[in-house]
Amino acid sequence: MTIVVQKYGGTSLSTTKRIKEVTERILEEKRKGNQVVVVVSAMGSSTDSLVEMSKDVSSHPDPREMDMLLSTGEQVTSSLVALALRDQGADALSLTGEQAGIHTEETFGDASISFIDTPKIKVHLDENKIVVVAGFQGVSEKGEICTLGRGGSDTTAASLAAELHADRCEIFTDVEGVFTADPRVVKEAKKIPELTYKQMQDLADMGAGVVHPRAVLYAYRNNVPLFVRSSFDQQEGTRIDHFREQTNVTGIAVEKDLTCVTIIGKEKTNLSEEASAMIKIIEAAGIAIRRALIIEDRYSFSFIIQSKELKQTYSLLQGRPWISKVSYENRAAVSIVFSHERLANVSNRLGRILMTKRDRADIIFHSPRVWRIIVPEYELALTAQLLHDAFIEKPNLSISL
Amino acid sequence: MTIVVQKYGGTSLSTTKRIKEVTERILEEKRKGNQVVVVVSAMGSSTDSLVEMSKDVSSHPDPREMDMLLSTGEQVTSSLVALALRDQGADALSLTGEQAGIHTEETFGDASISFIDTPKIKVHLDENKIVVVAGFQGVSEKGEICTLGRGGSDTTAASLAAELHADRCEIFTDVEGVFTADPRVVKEAKKIPELTYKQMQDLADMGAGVVHPRAVLYAYRNNVPLFVRSSFDQQEGTRIDHFREQTNVTGIAVEKDLTCVTIIGKEKTNLSEEASAMIKIIEAAGIAIRRALIIEDRYSFSFIIQSKELKQTYSLLQGRPWISKVSYENRAAVSIVFSHERLANVSNRLGRILMTKRDRADIIFHSPRVWRIIVPEYELALTAQLLHDAFIEKPNLSISL
């Protein structure tokens, strides 16, 4: 029998009214005669409320306790969705990550799935039940609750789809699919009907938040077609599968809420050793350097992090005797994702496009398929618009540059 | 080493500010050199919010799903308390019911504890950690989350205290201890410094909500001294232990929010068979008949339930061909709890006390130690006051009646 995995995000489940609407869509799938596994995120902003409470009582929240706390959000939604389905006469039940057989490594806050004990779900599917799984979580060998990090419900869905040999995995969200750029930033952005896993992963890695990169990887490795669709309408959405790549440019991805940290040394001495040691310390604390270490000169250096990790980064920089000054600036990243490897002359072309409107751009070679432009936050929309116009709206023009 | 179990209720943990205050008291106990197990309820009204959401999506919420939903409330508090303790430098961790080794029968919504796998907690206590257990919940043999019913955190605390051979079990609440009557109803009510388990159980059974009757039973069976204390001040509270009973009357217990359901038959036929069949159906649905089946005459009968179960009761009465009319009236119960068995002439004495102010009272013999008076809700305070005055304030006078 065909198994379909559907994942619903927080905005699709923000209120009990929305939960009832989602129920309709789940029942539609069930009525087609398929076995249905539903993976849910926490309701709307409930995770943020829990995080707020933890900050009230703790200045450095312990990761194990945070996982105990945050995993409740998905458990609440899973039981409410199961209740709503049962209210419509369907046989449904909710499962925690542990009950769904999702086993993880014991890395609190950012665990990866080690294996899935699929019979734990199959026994319910074979009884013709709709299984609603609390996303974003699993259990370690020692019985500890571990979360998979932000966006982790996508990973739960994709890996369940892979292990259950599902026909497809549908990621329901609040947008109609994957776009050539974030439609809130670039008005002319168009929905992309088909993408390869690689294209999707590049976009997701560069900040296109519609689906988590880890989920794309699971789907790719296990040949599960992935659909990104809106839970608010009946449109087709974007299919992610093993296609032959057709287009030259996949799309433009934006990433907001970055901070550029600049460190100036005390004396005119070469900081390159201190810089690389400092980066190692920061990364060891679990903070991701968002792929840009900009050595301005030998006496200062800069790197980019997510703004939410600024406080922790700052505490790591405290008390280093060689630091004279630390400064911060809001930044955003606009990335152009090519569908094939393009190395020759991209930097120059990008520079020429951007120079028409701007004085300076930090253009970073990220991979043979991805170039990344770091701009001040207020220039995000302008930059995204320029690149979208040049590479998506008028692709022939840009190629000939 | 001495083990102390402390239980904190919802009002003691209603805000993150209150959680931090409670932390201080836990640390005080730890500083005495004791091993400390903390059992927590859900924060303030969070359980009610979860129940509200379940009603939004379901007209007849499934008990299994309700347990999945409601058990999250205690899990949230347990992690927040552990976070607050760790913030103060203490080594603390939270445990779900399952992680604490609390195994239950699989009766959703009202499970009883079948056994406690104590090494699961002891391993942490032996590492000198403060263990914070999510109350009100356990896990069935099949891995299903089961709640122990309202007030269930008391049961968690008392049974953990029993199984861990704790020195004592402290129930922290928002009142200073057990009173001769509910001080919100009877102004003159006095705190009782010492009670026997039996006295406490009679009071709790009759609605004194300060501690759950099941918890008293666990403590009694395992000889664990139980303390009821306020988390808002440093007073001694009430000690419940194996005392020799000193007083004649333990106290007055009140129970609000009751409904008297009266059923009138269609014809002038004897309803006694239908009445007992109907009571069986209602009890089989998990609704407790609050110990009063009043056969008014042979053509009608009445019984008393908790008002919150009225809706479900009503649906069970629907479509019975022999029923002509069903009516409902708000009721409350005032119970007088004797410290010894007293049978002779109590009904008459009670009647004479009550008749001074009232026209009618339904006086029910509940047990050789408990008499129960059913009154309209608006007469609750007057009745409690009359009995308190007669039996507690002027006991010699009442005995001589």
UniProtKB/TrEMBL annotation, chains A, B:
A Pfam family this chain is assigned to: AA_kinase
EC main group: transferase
Gene Ontology MF term list: aspartate kinase activity; ATP binding
Catalytic activity reported: L-aspartate + ATP = 4-phospho-L-aspartate + ADP
Native source species: Halobacillus mangrovi
CDD domains, per the entry: AAK_AK-DapG-like
Known role: Catalyzes the phosphorylation of the beta-carboxyl group of aspartic acid with ATP to yield 4-phospho-L-aspartate, which is involved in the branched biosynthetic pathway leading to the biosynthesis of amino acids threonine, isoleucine and methionine.
EC number: 2.7.2.4
Residues given in the record as ATP binding sites: K7, Y8, G9, G10, T173, D174, R184
Pathway linked to the protein: Amino-acid biosynthesis; L-lysine biosynthesis via DAP pathway; (S)-tetrahydrodipicolinate from L-aspartate: step 1/4; Amino-acid biosynthesis; L-methionine biosynthesis via de novo pathway; L-homoserine from L-aspartate: step 1/3; Amino-acid biosynthesis; L-threonine biosynthesis; L-threonine from L-aspartate: step 1/5
Family the entry assigns: Belongs to the aspartokinase family.
Superkingdom of this protein's organism: Bacteria
Binding site for substrate: T47, E74
Keywords from the named record: Amino-acid biosynthesis, ATP-binding, Diaminopimelate biosynthesis, Kinase, Lysine biosynthesis, Nucleotide-binding, Transferase
Gene Ontology terms: cellular component: cytosol
Occurrences of domain Aspartate/glutamate/uridylate kinase (ranges): 3-230
Protein name listed in UniProt: Aspartokinase
PANTHER family, sorted: ASPARTATE KINASE, ASPARTOKINASE 2
